[in-house]
Amino acid sequence: MWLDLGNGPRHGQVVFGAIAAKQRQHYPNVLDAYAEIPILPDDHSKSCSVAASLRSQDCLINRAVTTAGMIWSH
Questions:
Q1: CA dist., res. 5 & res. 13, Å (int)
Q2: Beta-sheet strands, E only, within the chain
Q3: Could you give the count of Cα atoms lying within 13 Å of 64 in the half-sphere of its Cβ?
Q4: Tell me, what DSSP letter sits at residue 18?
Q5: Does position 65 have pLDDT exceeding 80, yes or no?
């Protein structure tokens, strides 16, 4: 099984699915839902600053995504 958590500046997604092709007919994975992921450029920028993080992302996006992931993983 595959649990993919991701977020952008104003949104987040949690996608639960299967890795094995045989199981993907019942549990599609994140690449089935978001086919563009493999061609998106990687963002290697890092920030140790809380202020920089808050300027680039709405408040509570990370918390909302991780909370949803914890609920699905149990």
A1: 6
A2: 2-7, 12-17
A3: 13
A4: -
A5: no
What pLDDT does 27 receive? 86
User: How many Å apart are CA 67 and CA 37, to the nearest integer?
Assistant: 23
For residues 20 and 1, the answer to whether their CB atoms sit within 8 Å is no
pLDDT of residue 74: 61
Give the number of other Cβ atoms within 10 Å of residue 12's Cβ: 19
pLDDT in tens, 13-60: 788 888 888 888 888 888 888 889 889 888 776 666 666 666 666 667
- Tokens 């963002």, located at residue: 43
User: Where would I find the H helices in the chain?
Assistant: 30-33, 50-56, 61-73
Residue type, 70: M
Task: Scan for tokens 């493999």, then name that residue.
Answer: 38
Put simply, whether the predicted model's pTM sits higher than 0.70 gets the answer no
